Amino acid sequence: MSALVLRTVAETTAWVDSLRRSGRRLALVPTMGYLHEGHQSLIREGRRRADVVAASIFVNPTQFGPNEDLSRYPRDFEGDLAKCTSAGAEAVFAPAPEEMYPPGFQTHVEVGKVSQGLCGARRPGHFQGVATVVTKLLGLFKPQVALFGEKDYQQLQVIRALVRDLNLGVEIVGMPTVREPDGLALSSRNAYLSTEERRRALALSRGMAAAQALYERGTRDTASLVDAARRELAAVDLREDYVEVVDATSLTSLSSVTPGQPARILVAAFAGKTRLIDNQPIGG
């Protein structure tokens, strides 16, 4: 049996109210659709942590800039619904843009320091759009737990900050990045890549691995670790957007990595016209 499709706020509110009256624990997995195994892993983990899992499929227009790929963002609702169902979601919220942003909509959520720098600096307004839509979804579903992938690591930290600061009372779970056997992080935007671009995109994971290998040989200064990653990008002519080593929680830049200190290397680069991001822990 296919997951229940909810199209409106009113339908969703009624479904959530019924669920709460039954005393069942709800997990929410927000997505923009064009699902892959990474999204399905979130739904399966939601089933482990709650009685019922709902997913949302909504290509959120407020997190796209004027020159970004909103109109061509890949969509496959029927395929997504089947993947949600097979992974264990009981309901899928798939609203129209005007349902989420009706005439007169004027409220936005802005998260401070953690949304600045990295993708926040390159995509003005992006994290305001993310924070606003996630706040709306959490308010609508009132889940006990919500799950997000670590591939969008800055996004995850933005969401953790807004939930903490606004006392939303939702457990936010970050799940490890799911990768292809050759190391490429799964992403809906991988659909844009040509065969040659996909081959070159492997430099993101190779670069992070090179930085980690250098750390394991005793290098602690982040400039050297960043250079190791950059060399892998340059070797295949990927256009770097950024490579940074940051504190894993605050996302502030680090000059060195101390053993035992939670740190993360984050990479963004263009393969052709497609902007790809990746990250992993660094140090140990």
Describe the structure.
(R)-pantoate binds at residues 63, 155. The chain is α/β, with parallel strands linked by helices. It has helices at 9-21, 37-49, 77-87, 97-100, 118-122, 126-141, 153-165, 195-201, 203-216, 222-235, and strands at 4-6, 26-31, 52-57, 91-93, 145-149, 171-175, 239-247, 263-271, 274-282. The chain contains ten helices and nine strands. α2 runs parallel beside α3 and α6 crosses α7. The longest helix is centred in the middle third of the chain and has 16 residues, at 126-141.
Number of helices: 10
Q: Which sequence of strands runs across the widest sheet?
A: 1-4-3-2-5-6
- CATH topology value of the largest domain: Rossmann fold
**Which ranges are low-confidence, i.e. pLDDT below 50, for 5 or more consecutive residues?**
none
CATH class of the largest domain: Alpha Beta
Fourth-level CATH superfamily of the largest domain? HUPs
CATH architecture of the largest domain: 3-Layer(aba) Sandwich
Taking the sheet with the most strands, its summary is: 6 strands, parallel
| Helix proportion | 25-40%
